[in-house]
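hey
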């Protein structure tokens, strides 16, 4: 597809750079939602870092592999600046195309009421959220910048994504997703598992 797309999937804001096929986009959405659902089911009361590690392992099971990873941490009481600092971390991991399109996705989220409310509600419930910037590498692979923030649930009030945030634990890494393998080996089972919740958790937006 030649259009940029921004979608809320549970507690994740997903940005698809033009050129990502429809099948690849669907694979990313399904995989992200399945991994989040499995994490909440199996580790609902675990610390955020344990949840994130489990979430990554669920994604690896579906065909995601970390290529090169950059971990970034801001210790208390240093602040995470608003949008610019987030985008600079995405830029550092994967380049300008990813950060530019994630900026467009964040602007779209700000203007789309129901997806924004859903994203903020899920993020507050989990006291963490993800940003995913997706770009095609080939017909079989998608590169994804997975940006993750976790903190105290009190910090996830309305509009939190666009304000300064204190004491957040931040990770940004580049992941390679084998969408062909996912479609061949995992997709049908994932679709069956999500049949009752997918429409409630995936919210596409006007960009």
């Amino acid at each position: 597809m030649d259009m940029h797309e921004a979608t809320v999937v549970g507690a994740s804001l997903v940005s698809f750079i033009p050129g990502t096929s429809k099948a690849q986009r669907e694979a990313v959405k399904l995989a992200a939602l399945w991994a989040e659902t499995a994490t909440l089911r199996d580790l609902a009361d675990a610390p955020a870092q344990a949840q994130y590690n489990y979430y990554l392992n669920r994604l690896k099971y579906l065909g995601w592999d970390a290529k090169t990873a950059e971990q970034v941490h801001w210790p208390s009481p240093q602040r995470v600046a608003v949008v610019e600092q987030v985008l600079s971390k995405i830029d550092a991991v994967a380049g300008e195309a990813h950060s530019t399109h994630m900026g467009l996705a964040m602007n779209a989220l700000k203007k789309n009421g129901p997806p924004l409310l859903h994203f903020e509600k899920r993020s507050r419930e989990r006291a963490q959220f993800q940003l995913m910037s997706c770009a095609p590498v080939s017909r079989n692979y998608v590169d994804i910048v997975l940006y993750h923030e976790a903190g105290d649930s009190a910090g996830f009030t309305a509009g939190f994504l666009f304000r300064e945030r204190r004491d957040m634990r931040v990770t940004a890494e580049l992941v390679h997703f084998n969408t062909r393998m996912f479609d061949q080996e995992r997709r049908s089972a994932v679709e069956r598992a999500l049949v009752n919740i997918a429409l409630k958790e995936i919210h596409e937006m006007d960009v």
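The chain has eight helices and nine strands. The CA atoms of residues 141 and 148 lie 21 Å apart.
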